[in-house]
């Protein structure tokens, strides 16, 4: 089977919860091996997109293709291709960190679950904590374990839904570091974030989800061109993504920040 | 594919059983209340209750076991609800596994943990004077009835665990079930009850289950009670399973 050039392809995606239209025709695509950031404020519909892509939710319209498989028609094939790290760390509090990893390895029928678990614990700086119940972990440790659980079985596509929300600056840096090293290994990563800085830092391409559609997408350089360069400034300064976002969105909630 | 289901379900069962064994307080809570009832009825009310038998502990035992199971399944609802809340339920559903193993892990854990409390309570009962001449086949029949009762109430618990929006909602459904044995033949003969209460007591599932278990323990002819008992369990099981599946498919695409 040849690897499709596009790891994720979303077109015309629609989803409503009752009367609330959350996605009104979302289009974007993600190249294999790249990091793609879906940027949007709280409630924009980022999690809804991720849940559709990970076969947890059916769209009302449009198509979503992951690793060449349609999320609605071939959900099993999609699940074989992905790992989801949800918005809130989905770890088993009563098990130890090591037991959590072994559990996922056994479910994915990966050989030598114990070795896989120990390797990941070491890689994520959790070796000392591996024998402790997750209930005793800090937020950053939970998040790292959560991401480690997603790596088992080497899925070609990984979804990270707000991987650093709620983490302190130090833990956020650790997670950033891990995401960057993953992408270096050829894994496709779709991450969602509310932090413009995070998208700027990590992503090859960025799409801004606002009021149900992708209002803009492209590389950071392309997004920067959407703003007229500063004129009368003494020191030339590149606009930040935040400024781009505010210029495009230009609504009340953006203006408050 | 089916090997997949069995392997996945085994992992889910192992995980959930750890939840049981690592919260000793739940095991104690589940067994202590029925044992307290057993003590209360045996040593406080027992002297005044006329059942026409000389061993009131024997008379009590079936009802006490049903109370233990009815309270035990509230923890099944609780564990499933916690999985739904913590996001691990969604993680499992986004993985390349047999999705059915997620619920069946909880169901089997419920059966195993309730079997443990039943054994503990029977052991305490033996100390308090419970005696039976039941043979292997009778015990197998007892185990089958209790397993069916556990399974049917477990699927009721699955509905609560899937649909609840709070911990209370996920567990409170069991309170009326715990109460049901008190309005049955479990502790006093139904003949002593006033008309409408008697009619309810004699036609609700607990009475036929209690009567069937009592007959098996005492090596009396079980008559129709065992079939009525199993019929009730099967009926509850089918209806609860159908409802649970509807709620499940509303929650999971
Ligand atoms: N299951 C649901 N039922 C009803 N409304 C929902 C549900 N899930 C999300 N929403 C609503 O849909 C909108 C988008 O939610 P979400 O996709 O979680 O946004 P984000 O992840 O960008 O914060 C929000 O207004 C949210 O309240
Ligand atoms: Mg979200």
UniProtKB/TrEMBL annotation, chain A:
Topological type in the membrane: Peripheral membrane protein
Record keyword Lyase present: no
Keywords (A to Z) from UniProt: Antibiotic resistance, ATP-binding, Nucleotide-binding, Transferase, Transport
GO molecular function: ATP binding; ATP hydrolysis activity; transferase activity
Cited InterPro entries: AAA+_ATPase, ABC_transporter-like_ATP-bd, ABC_transporter-like_CS, ABC_transporter_ATP-binding, P-loop_NTPase
Positions of the ABC transporter domain: 8-236
Gene Ontology process terms (BP): response to antibiotic
Major location (coarse): membrane
Compartments it resides in: Cell membrane
A GO cellular component annotation in the UniProt record: plasma membrane
Family recorded in the similarity comment: Belongs to the ABC transporter superfamily.
Protein name per the record: Glycosyl transferase family 8
The organism of origin for this protein: Rhizocola hellebori
TrEMBL record, chain B:
InterPro entries reported for this sequence: ABC2_TM (IPR013525), ABC2_TM_bact-type (IPR047817), ABC_2_transport (IPR000412), Nod_factor_ABC_transporter (IPR051784)
A Pfam cross-reference name: ABC2_membrane
Cellular-component GO terms for this entry: ATP-binding cassette (ABC) transporter complex
Transmembrane regions: 26-45, 60-81, 102-127, 139-163, 170-188, 226-244
Domain of life: Bacteria
Swiss-Prot/TrEMBL keywords: Antibiotic resistance, Cell membrane, Membrane, Transmembrane, Transmembrane helix, Transport
Family to which the UniProt record says this protein belongs: Belongs to the ABC-2 integral membrane protein family.
Name this polypeptide is given: Transport permease protein
Organism: Rhizocola hellebori
């Amino acid at each position: 089977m040849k690897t499709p050039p596009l790891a994720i392809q979303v077109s015309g995606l629609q989803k409503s919860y009752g009367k609330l239209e959350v996605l009104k025709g979302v289009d974007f695509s993600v190249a294999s091996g790249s990091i793609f950031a879906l940027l949007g404020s709280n409630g924009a519909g980022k999690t809804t997109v991720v849940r559709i892509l990970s076969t947890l939710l059916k769209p009302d319209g449009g198509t979503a293709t992951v690793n060449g498989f349609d999320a609605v028609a071939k959900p099993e094939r999609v699940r074989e291709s992905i790992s989801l790290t949800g918005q809130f760390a989905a770890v088993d509090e009563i098990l130890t960190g090591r037991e959590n990893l072994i559990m996922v390895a056994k479910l994915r029928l990966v050989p030598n679950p114990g070795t896989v678990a120990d390797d990941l614990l070491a890689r994520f700086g959790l070796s000392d904590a591996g024998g402790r119940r997750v209930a005793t972990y800090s937020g950053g440790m939970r998040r790292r374990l959560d991401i480690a659980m997603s790596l088992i079985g080497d899925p070609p596509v990984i979804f990270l839904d707000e991987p650093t929300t709620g983490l302190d600056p130090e833990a956020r840096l650790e997670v950033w570091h891990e995401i960057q090293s993953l992408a270096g290994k050829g894994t496709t990563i779709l991450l969602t974030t509310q932090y413009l800085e995070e998208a700027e830092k990590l992503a090859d391409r960025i799409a801004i989800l606002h009021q149900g559609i992708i209002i803009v997408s492209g590389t950071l350089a392309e997004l920067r061109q959407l703003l007229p360069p500063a004129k009368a400034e003494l020191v030339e300064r590149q606009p930040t993504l935040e400024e781009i976002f505010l210029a495009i969105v230009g609504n009340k909630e953006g203006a408050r920040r | 594919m089916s090997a997949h289901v069995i392997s996945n379900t085994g992992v889910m069962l192992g995980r959930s059983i750890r939840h049981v064994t690592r919260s000793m307080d739940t095991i104690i809570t589940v067994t202590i209340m029925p044992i307290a009832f057993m003590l209360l009825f045996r040593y406080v009310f027992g002297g005044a209750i006329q059942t026409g038998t000389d061993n009131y502990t024997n008379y009590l035992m079936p009802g006490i076991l049903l109370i233990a199971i009815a309270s035990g399944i509230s923890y099944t609802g609780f564990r499933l609800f916690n999985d739904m809340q913590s996001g691990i339920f969604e993680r499992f559903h986004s993985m390349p596994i047999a999705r059915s193993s997620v619920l069946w892990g909880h169901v089997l854990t419920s059966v195993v943990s309730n079997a443990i409390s039943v054994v503990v309570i029977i052991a305490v009962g033996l100390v308090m004077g419970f005696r039976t001449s039941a043979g292997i086949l009778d015990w197998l029949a007892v185990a089958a009835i209790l397993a069916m009762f556990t399974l049917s109430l477990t699927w009721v618990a699955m509905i609560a665990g899937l649909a609840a929006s709070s911990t209370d909602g996920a567990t409170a459904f069991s309170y009326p079930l715990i109460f049901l044995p008190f309005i049955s033949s479990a502790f006093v003969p139904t003949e002593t009850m006033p008309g409408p209460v008697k009619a309810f007591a004699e036609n609700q599932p607990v009475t036929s289950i209690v009567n069937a278990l009592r007959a098996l323990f005492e090596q009396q002819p079980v008559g129709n009670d065992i079939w009525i008992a199993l019929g009730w369990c099967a009926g509850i099981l089918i209806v609860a399973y159908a409802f649970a599946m509807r709620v499940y498919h509303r929650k999971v695409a």
